[in-house]
Amino acid sequence: MFKRISSLFLTLLLVVGFAFPAAADWTTYQGNNNHNGVITDGAPITASVNTAMVNLTHNGSGWDGIDTAPVMQTLDNGDTYAYVIYDGYAVNGNNGGGRLAKVRANDAKEIWSKQLTLSAGFQLSTPLLVQGNDASSEADDTIYVGTTGFSQLLKNDELNGSPVTDWTVTGGVASGTGIDVTGNQVVTLKQTGLALNNAATNRATLGIHVGNNANTNVTADVQVKVNGTTVVTKAFSKSSSDAQAKPIQDPANPGQYYYYLNDNFAAMAGDEVEYIIDVKNNASTVKVDYASLYQQTGSIQKVTGLDQPSPSNVSIVTGIAGQINTPITTDGTYLYFGTWTGKGGGTYYQVEIANPTNVKTATTGDYYWAGAVVVGNYVYFGGDGGKLHYRSVANFANVGGVINLSTDGGVTAGNVRSSIALVDNTLYFTSQGGYLWSYELDQDGIPTFEWKVALGGTSTSTPVITNNGKAYVGYYAGFTNGGVQAIDLNTKSVTTVGTPGPVQSSVVAYSVGTTDYIYLTTNAADGAGYSFNGTTTQELWNTTNTDGKTYTLQGMAASGGYLVFGNDYNNLYIIK
After folding, report:
1. Is CB count within 10 Å lower at the N or C end of the chain?
2. Model-level pTM?
3. Among 200, 203, 194, which Cα is nearest to 227's?
4. Rounded distance, CA 160 to CA 428, Å?
5. Can the peptide bond before residue 251 be classed as cis, meaning omega within 30 degrees of 0?
6. Contact call for residues 542 and 57 (beta carbons, < 8 A)
7. Residue 534 backbone dihedrals phi, psi, to 5 degrees
């Protein structure tokens, strides 16, 4: 079991080579309402950095953790704070669950950790920090947080007992803590009497322990049925083109590998669920470890009293179907965010800040990491299926349009799972087909296709656009390969800056004269933070020698000269 460790300073090298303009705050995803990811108040620009680690309050272990970028601010007295939402794992009273933490960067100290949900599970929506008028205090500041709650519906989802209680089981042998499978067998697990309703989306999970070798020859074809209707299918093998269908190392038990089913399906009514697991195994015995079924509902929470030992939180929008998987963004009047169901039934929301009962929605697709930007009369955001959406700010529910990127670009665009970066009336974003896109807004605010550029792999990275005429984006191929590339906005030429590993996050940049310094994280088993000189492509530093490194899904935030990011072990790293 992964043990909680106290805050630990890990000094790598002496700090030199900083520039310190006036402190700037990082109040939303990628720093500001244009989401361009440019640092303006200083960052490390040499190979010498100090790194500190804070292990955030949690209960037990898991394989998610911190999966969003923090928001940050620096007060007049020089204190810099990072705020981050994360999964604190199993709930036991006030322990565990979805949580919001406040960490002081100056001394790497957790100030508080507030429980926001009464269930464990992924939290993928970067919060929004709305500052008050007092720059010397957080007393009049507010954080808006999108939380996804998960209610587990099945009895004995750990498959305990011999025979296994609460389930009808065929195939395999009950071991007391799961079902052992030897050779080629089909295992079925059926449970009745549950209460699936037609108002909330669902997530089916399953764990199959395949041993201590990622190169296993075990395969497993999995179906999940509700009242006889197939709702989820997945084929697991080491050779799968889907990284989520390959053997994945258990973060709580290094060296042990699992096939993890973790798939959404749409809202539906039902009282019976069946898991069908077709195992092909010519190696040692494998084990079906657990089978769970979650209903998902989300809420937007308003958190105040940030200066207090424990802040206050209240839900201002509730009953949101699906996962809130996009950053919360704003134009100063409204909050914008989207949901993802996995079946195309997501919703994008507009919520008036002054009157949060004024909620408008547009149901036009699924939205994952696709944060919105507002320009003039329209709000713009990407979506699954290779779409660029635009909606009227004044009439969000009824007026807008959808652009098919594949039609404009003549390629298979893939899902848009980046936020929109806005620079000089132009929208920049990436798509999972491996492209960077540029759309210019015409005089009426309608996006017009300008160009696309092919990248080195799949991308979910919001582009960083610097004053030196460069765009920087991350890319990846599975959990082992990837890096960051620079695109010259004039020539459209692509240069690989570095290949430290898969980069699913958005990079951030700090410029000194004509030199851009790039900061990023890698989402791999040994995930870490990295810095590169974007001009020379020289690697400046990394955090690979720090304790507690693991998968790091999201990127860095910056304020007061500090860089901050977190990983799936709930470790928050502070670099200066």
Report:
1. N
2. 0.85
3. 194
4. 50
5. no
6. no
7. -70, -20
Write the CA distances from 290 to 153, 294, 396, integer angstroms. Answer: 13, 13, 43
Buried b / exposed e along 534-571 (16+ C-beta atoms within 10 A): bbeeebbbbbeebebbbbbbbbbbbbbbbbbbbbbbbb
Tokens, residue 230: 């197939």
Note the pLDDT of residue 6: 27
Q: What is the pLDDT of residue 108?
A: 99
The sign one gets for the Cα dihedral 256, 3, 203, 458 is negative
Separation of alpha carbons 568 and 572, rounded Å: 10
Question: Between the CA of residue 325 and those of 11, 302, 328, 435, 564, what are the distances in Å?
Answer: 34, 17, 9, 21, 21
* Diameter of the chain measured on Cα atoms: 70
Whether residue 464 contacts residue 506, with contact meaning beta carbons closer than 8 Å, is answered with yes
Q: Can you give the three-state secondary structure of 453-501, one letter per residue?
A: EECCCECCCCCEECCCCEEEEEEEECCCEEEEEEEECCCCCEEEEECCC
Considering only CA atoms, which of 478, 486, 477, 565 is closest in space to residue 520? 565
Long-range contacts of 253-259 (CB under 8 A, 24+ apart): 255/212, 256/209, 256/211, 256/212, 257/209, 257/210, 257/211, 257/212, 257/213, 257/214, 257/216, 258/207, 258/208, 258/209, 258/210, 258/289, 259/206, 259/207, 259/208, 259/210, 259/218, 259/220
Tokens standing for residue 572: 């928050």
Tokens linked to 419: 């936020």
Helix (H, G, I), strand (E, B) or coil at 408: helix
Pairing mode, strands 508-512 and 38-39: parallel
Q: What is the pLDDT of residues 523-572, one digit of tens each?
A: 999 999 999 999 999 999 999 999 999 999 999 999 999 999 999 999 99
Within the chain, how many helices (H) and strands (E) appear? 1, 47
Residue 16: predicted pLDDT: 30
Burial 442-469 (b: 16+ CB within 10 A, else e): eeebebeeeebbebbbbbbbbbbbbebe
Angle at 423 between CA 351 and CA 395, to 5 degrees: 30
pLDDT digits (tens, 9 = 90+) for 415-447: 999 999 999 999 999 999 999 999 999 999 999
Tokens describing residue 182: 């030897």
Phi, psi at 541, each rounded to 5°: -160, 165
Give the residues of the chain that fall short of pLDDT 70.
Answer: 1-23, 252, 283
CB 553 within 8 A of CB 542: no
Cβ-in-10-Å burial (0-12, 13-18, 19+) of 411 comes to: middle
Exposure on the CB side of residue 177, measured as CA atoms within 13 A: 2
Look-up of token digits 């004024």: 358
Would you state the pLDDT for residue 23?
58
C-alpha–C-alpha distance, residues 516 and 472, integer Å: 10
